[in-house]
Structures are given as C-alpha cells and as structure tokens.
Amino acid sequence: MKVKTILVSQPEPKTESSPYFDLADKQKIKIDFRPFIHVEGIDASEVRKQKIDLSEFTAIILTSRNAVDHFFRIAEEMRFTVPDSMKYFCQSEAVAYYLQKYIVYRKRKVYVGERTFTDLLTILKKHKAEKYLLPSSDVLKSDVTMVLNKAKLNWVRSIMFKTVHSDLSDLDNVLYDVLVFFSPSGIQSLFANFPGFQQNETRIAAFGSTTIKAASELGLKVEIQAPTPKSPSMTKALEDYIASTNK
Fold it and tell me: Across the strands, what pairs with 45?
C-alpha cells in the first residue's frame, strides 16, 4: 500500500527548514505532528524528599533542555542562588546554547560534549574533584548511570521532572498509513490512549533500539527503522521506504 499520511509523535517543528516539510513536499504526502508524551515538573518538596541540597554541588550535568529548565526552576523554588562558580557539563552544543537562557557565558564555566553522553565522559574525567548533580526525568537511560559509575565520579541523580502520556482523546483514531515513534514512552502512550489499537495495515516507524524493542514487545511490527548505516535519520528512513512503496 502506498503511503499518503504520516503521524509523527513529536511536536511540529518550529523551523520551516525541517526535513519533514521537505519530505512532505517532495513525496506529495500529508505529515501531521502530535506529541504522544510530554514533560511535567516535580515539585521542590518532592526534590527535598530525595535529600537534595543544591548547595552541596559544584557541577551540574545537563543532558537535555528539559534538564536545564527544571534545574533552574527547582533552584528558584528552593530560593537557591546558583553561584558563579558552578560548572556546567552539557551533553551537546544544543544544550549548551539553550543554557544561555539562564546564565551569562562569560561569567560561568561551561563544558560541552560532542553529541552522546559517552562523548561527554572524556571531559568529566578531567574534573574528578567535582561533586556532580544530574537533574533528570523519572526515565533515565541505563547507559548514563553505567558511564558515570564506571568513571568513578562523585555524582547524585535528582529526579526533577517526569515523562507522562499525553491525552490524545481528541483524536478519533490513529488511522494513518505510518506512525512514527522515538521512545518506548511514545509506544506506551499509544496503547494507554487506544487500548484496543490494532495495527492492521498501519506501518510503524521506530527510532532507536529501545523503541523498536518496546514496539515488538507490544505486538507491533516495525517496518521502518532508524538509525541505520543507510538511513541515519528518521526522515531518510521514511523517504527510502516511501520511494520504494509509492512507485
């Protein structure tokens, strides 16, 4: 069956140069966007119950924009003034750039990894004397904990936000030719909102091994996978699939 409609389980891109828009124009298909999950902040009182004292830490490990937002939110709720001496270790340039929403670069020490958390480890190892705080969601990739423990760093995790299923009740159905997922939580949200969901002719696209595994465990057949050597991005995987299917 030809692909005419795609639902991407993420917010619509804010930039007009998104490859999804290019894909829609090139292949003459309809692509809709709808986040299946969203982030909610955890109250400062809940963070206190984790026995977190922000004044004890000399460095912050930031893996996402959400981590940045919620660290500074909690600091404000706790009436904690983040000292100029605080060091920030950002997983990527995107996270570091976003950090400027809260701090002035020239007054702070910011260290940036290339892209993955493992890339950041090399930098972290050079600063073993620091006491690190890792603001995170309730869902944390196991490799983050493994990497930090293996490096024998002095670190503490604080859950400051959580990933929850979005309410999709306004969607009468999910009758799209392709559903695109980027996390196990997105897959779980599909069944939480539509317990009787049947895949039938719907193609499932999944990004990452954990997402593919979650889909399979819930009985879904994943026909479009990324990243792969041939398709490093989801848009490339979709483009290749559509090119072969819509002949």
Answer: none
Q: CATH code at 196? A: 3.40.50.10090
Helices (H) and strands (E) in the chain, counts: 9, 11
Span 80-97, pLDDT tens digits? 999 999 999 998 899 999
Q: What is the pLDDT of residue 239?
A: 96
Distance CA 245, CA 106 (A): 52
Give tens-digit pLDDT for 190-225. 999 999 899 999 999 999 999 999 999 999 999 999
Position 169 confidence tier, pLDDT thresholds 50, 70, 90 = confident
3-state secondary structure of 32: strand
Q: Which residues contact 167 (CB under 8 A, 6 or more apart)?
A: 193
Last residue of a domain, one of 109, 133, 163: 163
The span from the CA of 67 to the CA of 91, in Å, is 11
Which domain does 76 fall in, by range? 40-163
Task: Using the 3D structure, point to which of 125, 142, 163 is the last residue of a domain.
Answer: 163
Q: In whole angstroms, give the CA distance from residue 70 to residue 41.
A: 7
101 and 132 part of one domain: yes
Q: Which residues contact 33 (CB under 8 A, 6 or more apart)?
A: 7, 8, 10, 11, 12, 13, 20
The strands making up 222-226's β-sheet, listed across from edge to edge, are 30-33, 5-8, 178-181, 203-207, 222-226
130 lies in the same domain as 188? no
**148 shares a domain with 46:** yes
